[in-house]
Amino acid sequence: MTTEAADQRLDFRMSPRDLINIGIFGALYIVTVGIFNLLEFISPIMTLVTSAVSIVAAGVPFMLFLTRVRHAGMVTVLAVIVNGFMLLIGSPPIGLVIGVVGALVAEALLYVGRYRSRKMSVLAYAVFSTWFAGLFAPMLYARDEFLSSPYMDSMGAEYVEKLDDLLSPAVLISFDVSTLVFGVIGGALGVRLLDKHFRKAGLV
Q1: Which of 39, 99, 123, 174 stands the most exposed, by the fewest C-beta atoms within 10 Å?
Q2: Is the separation of the CB atoms in 92 and 135 below 8 Å?
Q3: What local confidence, expressed as pLDDT, does residue 122 receive?
Q4: DSSP state of 13
């Protein structure tokens, strides 16, 4: 594929098929993350564990989605759908901001790879996955408000107390950094499992 052909993918005009793909893979991504995150109710430590597992597992549907990406902006729209849903079920608004910023950086990485680089696709997923950092980001600047939020109230007083003890600033920062690491693992796993699809899509 020539550079000119690759640049055509920067066209922001999405077809109905593009929008359908975004919707389908957005749903698959949300379901994959949701299945594992259901276990967070067991204990606060499981919240961190299931987040890490979710990032790795969700790399498969995300990387499959990238084989359908034909226009700049598709990853960002996906991020809005995913993080908008998370906002609706109780995640803090900062998660939506982090998710959109991460998606824009992911778009830039995909552009650098001319939408054909597996390596850049994996890095794009790693950056996209940083939206998970937004789940607990308020604990760094509005800890009391976050722990007394309706969503936290629904988890029970004992759960909230243990979460407060567990998520020190050092643990939170380590978790934020780990989202990139697990994103790379999830992206690499997705590429490995979907190699046939990547070859068909011309990703090398």
Answers
A1: 174
A2: yes
A3: 96
A4: -
